[in-house]
């Protein structure tokens, strides 16, 4: 990906492509032409598409391996416990899609029709979409630069036929980069309810989550609150609690107090969760007896 000059005036500036800092930039001609400032037509298309989605929640964390996908799956299943609530789970971790595995959907494929891509359904009221469904093997590497990731996220939001949905849960990769900027850009016009931030108790995780909080504030993304995952472990034999990841700086509670954010809760380490993901389907799923037909089958 091309480097942006440190003093870039921005594509909306009258100096775009003309300022001294633009000299030598590979995008200088594009910016000077004014084409770079043209709004992406997909934003309005996605806004129209999202009119059937009542609530949109992003699951974020600056740190990898803290349990964003696991939390997203639990949240989706928890909401879908009400049979009258329609839930959609979108996995935009393009390079590391783990939602198909966690949801017990490996090997499933996406159907396409005139109305768009049909999600893969876990149950009648819980649909899932992930780039993992588009790979020929779960071991395939997705080696894409930013623009192609951006295009994939755009397609997920614009072309998937979610139907009438009460909650859209978006599972994101770690960091504050391409995927995060894209999903916020495309969904802002459609109104995002906010982000749930996931952390673990130790400072090495909290340090990166603070960056994510800073990102949310810079892009004006509301923060619903913080969840501390892997918060203690209760031995199944002696029943004593151990801190596998010691909260040396006070954990999520201290961070939330300092930054004036709600601490939504703590989730302990549970061996059943790790064991469930190695099986064909997660332990919280009931055997599926019905799956809505795809548009091509209906």
Can you give a write-up of this model?
- The protein is an alpha/beta fold.
- The protein is 30% helix and 19% strand.
- The strands form 3 sheets. An 8-stranded mixed β-sheet has the order 5-6-2-7-1-8-9-12, with helices on both faces.
- It is globular, with a radius of gyration of 21 Å.
List the defining traits of the structure above.
single chain, 298 residues, alpha/beta, eight-stranded mixed beta sheet, two-stranded antiparallel ribbon, 12 strands, 30% helix, globular
How much helical structure, as a percent, in the residues?
A: 25-40%
| Coarse structural class | alpha/beta
Q: Please indicate the percent range of residues in DSSP E strands (runs of 2 or more).
A: 15-25%
Low-confidence stretches: 280-298
The first-to-last residue Cα distance is 43 Å
**Element order: H for helix, E for strand:** HHEHEHEEEEHEHEHEEEHEH
Number of strands: 12
Return Rg in Å.
21 Å
């Amino acid at each position: 990906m091309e480097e942006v000059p440190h003093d870039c005036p921005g594509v909306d500036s009258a100096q775009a492509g003309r300022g001294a800092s633009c000299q030598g930039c590979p995008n200088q001609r594009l910016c000077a032409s004014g084409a770079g400032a043209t709004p992406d037509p997909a934003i309005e298309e996605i806004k129209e598409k999202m009119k059937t989605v009542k609530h949109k929640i992003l699951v974020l964390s600056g740190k990898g391996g803290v349990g964003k996908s696991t939390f997203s799956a639990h949240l989706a299943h928890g909401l879908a416990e009400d049979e009258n609530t329609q839930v959609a789970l979108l996995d935009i971790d393009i390079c590391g899609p783990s939602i198909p595995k966690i949801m017990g959907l490996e090997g499933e494929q996406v159907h396409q029709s005139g109305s768009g891509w049909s999600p893969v359904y876990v149950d009648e009221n819980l649909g899932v979409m992930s780039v993992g469904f588009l790979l020929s093997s779960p071991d395939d590497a997705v080696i894409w630069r930013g623009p192609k990731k951006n295009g994939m996220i755009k397609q997920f939001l614009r072309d998937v036929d979610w139907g009438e949905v009460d909650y859209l849960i978006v599972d994101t990769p770690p960091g504050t980069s391409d995927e995060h900027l894209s999903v916020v850009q495309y969904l802002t016009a459609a109104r995002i309810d906010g982000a749930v931030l996931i952390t673990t108790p130790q400072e090495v995780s909290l340090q990166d989550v603070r960056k994510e909080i800073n990102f949310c504030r810079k892009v004006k993304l509301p923060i619903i609150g913080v969840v501390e995952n892997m918060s203690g472990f209760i031995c199944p034999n002696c029943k004593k609690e151990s801190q596998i990841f010691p909260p040396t700086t006070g954990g999520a509670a201290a961070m939330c107090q300092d930054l004036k954010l709600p601490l939504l809760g703590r989730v302990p380490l549970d061996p059943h969760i790790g064991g469930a993901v190695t099986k064909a389907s997660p332990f919280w799923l009931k055997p599926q007896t019905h799956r809505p037909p795809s548009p091509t089958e209906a």
